[in-house]
Structure formats: C-alpha cells, structure tokens
C-alpha cells in the first residue's frame, strides 16, 4: 500500500514538475550544500512520513560521495552529489505535491458544498416561481368569478336572504258610485 502510494506520489510529483516547469535554473554552485539545505528542511517530523524513501536515498548518495572523495575519485563524487541533490529535490517535490493535494481536497470539499447550496437555492427558486404561478391563477380565477357573479347578483337573491319585494303598482282607487245628484 505504501509502495503504491509512493509510486503515485512520485508520478504526481514528476507531473507537477513537468507541468509547472520553470525556466532552467543553474544548479547551485555546490550540489552538496544545496542537498544538505534541502535535507535539513525536509527531514522534520511533519514531512518525514512522506519523504522517508527519497531522503534515505539522498543521504546514502551523500555518504557514497564522501567515500568517493576520500578515495580520491572526484568524478564519481561529483556525480553522487548530483544524485543526492536529485533525490533531495524529489523529496521536496513530494512535499509540495502533498500540499497541493491537501489544497485540492479542500477545494473539492468547498466545490461540493457550493454545488449543494446551488441545488438547494435552485429548488427554492422553483418553489417560489410555482407559488407565484398558483397565486396568479387563483387571482385570475377569483377575478373571473367575481366579474361573472356581479351582474347576476342584482338579479338573483343571495343565499339565505329573501328576495327583496318589488314595489307593487299602485292600485286604482275603487270606482266611485255614480252620483245622481240626489242628496
């Protein structure tokens, strides 16, 4: 499991280095000093689990370079110093890749949270639009029923109330008896 993770991290680090390649920089004047600087920066408890393998290889290459110098083999000592520097840079790349992965995980979590909020907001907007549509339909229906009921209301009695009585036509006065002139 650790080997697979290490291989994946190395592949990712290589990808990061290749994708974000900076303009070519000249190697430090002294690869051994640069290696030592990187190793002292990386060989701390916080990063030790991530960079254990490349740091071990860098330290082994440094030791071999010192042994080669002691034996008078300066060409191989220089090559071993370059190898140690390469391993230290790989370890540094692994640390940066781990930091990038951590930031990526945080960003992905934020994106998921924002997507969920967007979905909830969209649902609320759709509910509000639906309520507005229903309210407009109810208002239109009530208005339509109200305009139809208004003219017929004067003609038809309201429920529970008797129809108002129409005023009766004045009755004609009973005809008067014809007067005969006699008293």
Can you walk me through this structure?
- The N and C termini lie far apart (144 Å).
- Helix content is 75%, strand content 0%.
- The chain is rod-shaped, with a radius of gyration of 49 Å.
- It is built from four helices and no strands.
- Helix 2 packs antiparallel against helix 3 (45-71), helix 2 (31-42) crosses helix 4 and helix 3 packs antiparallel against helix 4 (74-153).
- The chain has helices at 2-19, 31-42, 45-71, 74-153.
- It is mainly alpha-helical and 183 residues long.
Task: Offer a concise description of the structure.
This protein is mainly α. 75% of the residues lie in helices and 0% in strands.
Break the fold down into its secondary structure elements and pairings.
Layout: H1 2-19, H2 31-42, H3 45-71, H4 74-153
